[in-house]
Amino acid sequence: MMYPNRLVSVYATFGLLVLFLWVWRSAETEVIGIIGSSIELQCCYPEAESLNYNRNRILWQIKDRFSCFVAGYFPNENMEKYQCEEFKRRTLLNEPKQGSASLQLSNIRIADEFIYQCVIQKNINGQFKLIHNESISLKVAANYSKPVITGPVQLGEEMMFMCNSSHGYPEQRLYWRNEIDNSTMNITVQFTKELDGTFSVFSTLKMKVASDTKLRCTIEHKQLHQNITTTTPVEVPELLHKVDR
Description:
It is a single chain. By secondary structure, the protein is mainly beta. It contains 2 helices and 16 strands. The chain folds into 2 domains: 29-141, Immunoglobulins (Immunoglobulin-like); 148-233, Immunoglobulins (Immunoglobulin-like, Sandwich).
């Protein structure tokens, strides 16, 4: 993408300042965005003054990728034509107000997982100077479907149960429990990456069943602070009947 000299100059100025401040300010805010939904990336200028389109420049960019313009405002400049293709028609810069230059990003994708930088400059005596720099780390996630337990299948003295769930992101922990004694199980787990970048998971459990019990299959999604569980009863007479057949 080609940028006019004026914009290249501004990017160079922003880039050097952001790089310098990044060493000084290593931490960033982390937010979670759900695939297909929208999120507001907040950028709050702590000083008690309103941001103004006439005296402020606002720039949203990706850390270490200064050539990619996400969104922003420069006085008397149409910035949409410089926007990276992957962000076109998906961003909305909120109206500058008391200390806020937040950005709305819609239709979140896995490819949106970056550290975003909000840079604000102010016109001071005819020159734009940096007054605020903030970094937001966007982590992308998707809910897994409710686990489905199937089986049992007779394997000699053992019974095998299967559990599957789909279209979650990123890979998460799947585990089984025996609800009678709350014990964990020996299992196998396999993740498959789908065409849309999300994951499906398939797990098998082999066990000897000596008495009635309940099995629980759980997907633990740490980013979303969510456990999705399915429980199924296991009755010995039913199993023995299947074995006899």
